[in-house]
Task: inverse folding
């Protein structure tokens, strides 16, 4: 089971702490490494399972990104003349 899973009834109502997002990104890194390893070994069934978890995690992160307010724009600093 993935580290982060929000039930349908709570979606859009829960604030996700940044450390949870960071842990999810780290989990995705490990999933990608496992997927590559299993692909190299020709073990498609195990590879497919990890791909499904990775896909769910990526959709979750994309949903969070879409629901987040845009970050304030920063103006480039002018070099001193």
Result:
């Amino acid at each position: 089971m993935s580290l982060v899973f929000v039930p349908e009834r709570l979606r859009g109502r829960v604030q996700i702490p940044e450390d949870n997002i960071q842990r999810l990104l780290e989990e995705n890194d490990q999933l990608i490494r496992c997927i590559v390893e299993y692909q190299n070994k020709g073990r498609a069934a195990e590879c497919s399972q990890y791909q499904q978890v990775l896909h769910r995690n990526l959709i979750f992160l994309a949903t969070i990104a879409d629901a987040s307010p845009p970050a304030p724009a920063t103006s480039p600093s002018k070099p001193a003349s």
